[in-house]
Batch of 3 targets.
Target 1
Amino acid sequence: MQGQIDYPQSLTIKYQPQTLDSFVGLEKPKKILSKFAERPYANSFLFVGPSGTGKATMALALAKQLQGEVIHIPSQHCTVADVEDAIRRCWYVPMIAGGFHILLCDEADQMTDKAQLLFLSKLDATSRPPNTIFIFTCNETDKLEPCFLSRCLRVEFSSYGLATDAAEFLAHVWEQEAPGADAPNFDRLVRDSKNNLRDALTRLESELLAA
């Protein structure tokens, strides 16, 4: 019975992009990953950029497009034991159609030194698990070793130039959620959130509840 109930969702969940081309802004990351998705291969990516720019969400969208099996190491949980368990799972045949494992490691700059060293050995061709695409996300790269960085294809995520597209997106969301209601200043919401779209959606949700 509960499976038939349409529970309300936060705006950040309800409007989370599901495909690469549905992201607001981020033209270069979208172009890189869309081209990669046309002919995917075992690779290692490092998504670098401020919080709220869609790094982990775009990794999940890529996995969905590739029909890959996601193995997720959450932030603050990237220890040697977690890495060893994730790598072990990558040696098994994926349970879904795409044929790839997508190993997503959030906030990789917070991983332990030993976990980073373990990843170094697994990113080499000689010991890399088959058909595995590694995606690491981070805000900064200062804590990552040069030899680790050299093993990853870096993709920059930036909020630069997002303001206009984000304001238009918020206006679309408002029209869907509160048609006819007096709208807030979308440009101000984006500006106050410092172009962090996730934060802007949260601010918009507050406006909806107050409308």
Note: The CA atoms of residues 122 and 128 lie 5 Å apart.
Target 2
Amino acid sequence: MRLSEVFRIAWEAIGKNKVRALLTMLGIIIGVAAVIVMISISAGTEATISDQITALGSNLIYISSSFSRMGPGMASSGGLIYDDATAIEEQISGVKGVVVEQDASETVKAGSVSLDAISVTGTSPDFLSVRSLTVSEGRFYTTDDVTNKKKVAVLGYDLATELFGTTDPIGQTILVSTTRVTVIGVLAEKGTVGEIDYDARLYAPISLVLQKFAQTPFSRIVGDQIRMIFVQVDDKANMDNVILQTQILLAKRHNVSLDSLDFTVTTQQDIIATQESTTAAFRSLLAWVAGVSLIVGGIGIMNIMLVSVTERTREIGIRQSIGATPADIRWQFLTEALLMSLVGGLIGAAVGIGGSWLFGTVSSMRTLIVPSSILLAFGSAAAVGAFFGFYPANRAAQLDPIDALRHE
């Protein structure tokens, strides 16, 4: 029997019971759509995280402290100090910029406006280039401001609006805790990146923050301890080489070996890779859960095909009596199962693509349709149809022609 004839007969058989066929395909439709939607949500989340990390700057190395307590009332052992950043900038080749950040939470007052728990970020002049930020009004502080611990501040866009409304904040004096500082600039809108709202912060020279807002009893002994150093690597430099130079320099400064560093060094790619591995595992879990619907749909196809074999037993006997071989019967019923799976897969793919787009439009979550997920879901639907359709098809092919003709 020609293949075209097999498809024609199978399609006509499906068309005779359209409602039943549609209900049978429902499990496949839901399964395929669920796989596409789940993977698109996971891929969208992964892309959002990657964009947020990249938005913090390019070619960045993150050096963070690993503090350890020596005992009650004693200083912390290890970790980073402010002078480490200066040493990196002066002694490591391939470094484009170095930024030190130290945070504090203080009350900020401007006239009659008082705001509590405002994040005060002490940092260095390279902060703008490393963090990909720009100044919309005034200027950012300079190396001279840091060196002389000048009492100046740059406001985030939203913080400037809250404190001064429509009044020009440049040159105005504000009170940060008990320290009066002069506003010299306002940053352009940045928004929230990685759970940090850059527009709601106050930025001051790192030297001023360490002296006024982040002073510890041990600063004179071990130096001004800082939480993190950001190093921007030159585009032409080798990232791994810069990391190795940095580890050797800081290990020597901290008097520790490379095997027992009191700090950790990571890159943006390390963070992205970690996030990708987490979301990949989550995506696989979602895909397996959605795949259960495909299996349920396959069981439904097998069940309906078994019913169809019983209903059409006499038809099978007539076809066998006029020359149809067991292979012809097997192909006929297997093709019916495959057609239902493929049609259900096509409908499910359309529903999945539309659902992903709709979900990304109406919700705050980003969705990203992955072409491979469509192929995966559609291929899985075809495989399910072939697997669960084989038993009914084989059962039909094994019917005895005489018994089949006698069947009422």
Note: The mean pLDDT is 81.
Target 3
Amino acid sequence: MRDSSLLRVVTYNIHKCRGLDQRVRPARIAEVLRAIDADVIALQEVIGVGNGGPGQAEELAEELGMRCAFGENRKLHGAGYGNAVLSRLPLTKHRNLDLTAPGGHEERGCLCVDVQMDGAVVHLFNLHLGTDFFERREQARKLVTPELIRPATLQGPRIVLGDFNEWTRGLVSHVLAAEFRSADIRVLLKQKRTYPGVFPFLHVDHIYYDEALLLESVRLHRSRMALIASDHLPLVAEFRLKSS
């Protein structure tokens, strides 16, 4: 029986649902996520609605029986492409904010979602940062502006998670570490990595959280299906509201 006072979140770059066998199989991603049984799921590299068919975010949400919010950052072959959040908890509102850096390789964004939990609101920021060092430095500066993760209107705790494309302690890590705690698997899980899934040697997927949340556990979901479904492994964390 799940503890209803715990919030289980996962960040997962699904690589357009294209597995290591180069087959696009949303059903495999759904199977991985079903095994994790998270309350809130942050996905990156998601293809949205377009070309006359349903998007991967909507398909996964329907398969898992969850609510869905999608943040389009650019078009890919005529369809939306960006980040998504799936949730079994109520989503009170969401917005997608531009993180594109001047001269960056491609458009990037941060999907901001408010999740209702036990009478409180948890503010979740799902992002996918650039691959270039200077691009990420500019995105780090954007992150801590009042328009993004520091709005004065926020009342509940914040969770910032996603694919940071930063495997060393760059400016993004320093900026977020100054304001948040980190579910750092390098410390908590002793040298574990998240990418690539079969033989991970880089730690690019991260979860940061406010002090109002108590981190109960963090783990990598490493199953046979997860090793083939995407080139990333899902990173899972459980939180409890300190007030509860």
Note: The helical segments are 26-36, 56-64, 133-143, 171-177, 185-188, 224-229.
